[in-house]
Design brief:
Elements: H1 2-15, H2 39-46, E1 53-57, H3 65-71, E2 76-80, H4 84-96, E3 104-107, H5 109-128
Parallel strand pairs: 1-2, 2-3
Length: about 140
Amino acid sequence: MRTEIADKEIKKGFATKGVFPYRWSFTLLFPLRNIFLSAGKLIERLDIKENYNVLEVGPGPGYFSIPVARKLKTGKLILADIQPEMLEYARKRFSKKRQEMHRTTYVTERLLISAIISLMSFIWLRYWGRLRPKKPTSGSLAGC
């Protein structure tokens, strides 16, 4: 009976929309993922520099987190996930790899929304200054 209930919960976790079941987070760490996208390729595509501050939303068990943290020599990595269990898994992986954890912050649910809003505000403010209004042309409505 107990096994049937557990099996139903597992199937329900995979069959419904929502977050990935943390009990199965070890499946996200299979090295075969490198076939599709390696951590090195991700760092290259995102053009992550040593001094960047990086917010990783939904890191799960931290498959990409440790290589990203290694790249950040003077920057900071913030891991934000709504499942505290996933963050705990990532934290344990960091300590096993002896990765410098003083530059890594773990954020859960309430702070997640705040962190995302802060990041979006930062991006908006940072790039707003770079946008220059176009000069109005004779046929545009800008001069109205």
